[in-house]
């Protein structure tokens, strides 16, 4: 049975970074293919007694060139690799992509991801061993207008000169409907396609582990008021950034904040505050938070094994130091309360 890999709207970047519509328009640079009917160049004829002078700037090399023409030319930009594996370097040669990682332990983790994908049916397996996996035919379904493409791969862990890598080799790619083998240039896209599938699976596993670790460590997140490098007041959570990032939304929701938007890479959250029910303050044992009901921006900072938390209004003006101190106490109380639920 073939494995069909489908990409929805939210995974468009994984599937392709070329924002073109149909298969025909992706291969048609302008107008139509009338240029294919252009007559062959003819020999230059000179007048009697004329001494011709030529420049080599426009000389057409004489050779038998092979390559696609007309509708067989794919003018889409090259498929781009999604660099989702921390510290990895990507080497793309022909129809082979190698993911180089700095440590043998990380390579083992990437290889575990590949083996897990095989067991879960992310792609069919023809042969499997500790040395590598040869896949069966994988059908790529990108969108309704795209050509039906199927391809198979050899996935192998490799080491070279102290480097550790996973090699993704495209063995063959063809059109599902006709069986026509794709040329190497077109096939390179599908070596990248499998690379991105593995990278996104690895990234999803890391994020899920961070989420679970955040839940396990939430009982050990002391909150206090401290100072940043400029001497300004800031709330400090004694937990790594990744852990606290995953847990903070549920803490804020418990406290009456609604998360409208957040950006993990920038450490920002946009929240709307509404006073929670009076029962909450009785449960957590603090006074009601003296905070206006409006939109706020929260900025998290990565301090290694700690995370800084700063509150500003929607115009970027920091809240008062007294309010920040109260927020620190309330966040600590909410975490303690959630631990008992």
From TrEMBL:
The gene is bamC. It is found in: Cell outer membrane. Part of the Bam complex. Part of the outer membrane protein assembly complex, which is involved in assembly and insertion of beta-barrel proteins into the outer membrane. Keywords: Cell outer membrane, Lipoprotein, Membrane, Palmitate, Signal. It is a lipid-anchor. GO terms for biological process: Gram-negative-bacterium-type cell outer membrane assembly; protein insertion into membrane. GO terms for cellular component: cell outer membrane. The keyword Signal applies. It comes from Enterovibrio nigricans DSM 22720. It holds the Pfam family Lipoprotein_18. InterPro entries: BamC (IPR014524), BamC_C (IPR042268), NlpB/DapX (IPR010653). Gene3D superfamilies: 3.30.530.50, Outer membrane protein assembly factor BamC. This is Outer membrane protein assembly factor BamC. Residues 1-18 form the signal peptide. Belongs to the BamC family. The keyword Signal applies.
């Amino acid at each position: 049975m073939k494995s069909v890999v489908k990409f929805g709207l939210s995974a468009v970047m994984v599937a392709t970074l070329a924002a073109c519509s149909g298969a025909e328009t992706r291969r048609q640079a302008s107008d139509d293919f009338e240029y294919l009917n252009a007559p062959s160049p003819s020999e230059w004829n000179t007048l009697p007694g004329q001494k011709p002078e030529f420049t080599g700037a426009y000389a057409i090399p004489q050779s038998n060139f092979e390559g696609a023409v007309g509708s067989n030319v794919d003018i889409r930009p090259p498929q781009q690799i999604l660099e989702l594996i921390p510290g990895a370097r990507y080497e793309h040669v022909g129809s082979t992509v190698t993911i180089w990682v700095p440590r043998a332990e990380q390579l083992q983790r990437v290889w575990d991801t590949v083996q897990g994908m095989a067991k879960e049916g992310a792609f069919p397996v023809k042969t499997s061993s500790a040395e590598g996996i040869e896949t069966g035919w994988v059908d790529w379904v990108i969108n309704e207008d795209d050509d039906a493409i199927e391809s198979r791969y050899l996935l192998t862990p490799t080491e070279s000169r102290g480097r550790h890598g996973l090699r993704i080799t495209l063995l063959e790619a063809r059109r599902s409907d006709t069986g026509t083998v794709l040329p190497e240039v077109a096939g390179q896209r599908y070596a990248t396609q499998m690379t991105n599938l593995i990278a996104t699976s690895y990234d999803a596993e890391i994020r899920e582990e961070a989420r679970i670790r955040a839940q396990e460590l939430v009982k050990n997140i002391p909150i206090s008021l401290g100072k940043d490098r400029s001497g300004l007041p800031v709330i400090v959570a004694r937990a790594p950034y990744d852990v606290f990032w995953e847990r903070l939304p549920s803490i804020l929701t418990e406290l009456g904040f609604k998360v409208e938007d957040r950006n993990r890479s920038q450490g920002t959250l946009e929240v709307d505050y509404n006073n929670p029910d009076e029962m909450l303050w009785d449960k957590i044992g603090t006074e009601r938070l003296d905070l206006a009901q409006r939109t706020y921006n929260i900025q998290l900072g990565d301090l290694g094994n700690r995370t800084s938390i700063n509150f500003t209004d929607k115009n970027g003006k920091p809240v008062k130091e007294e309010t920040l101190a109260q927020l620190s106490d309330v966040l600590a109380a909410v975490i303690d309360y959630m631990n008992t639920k």
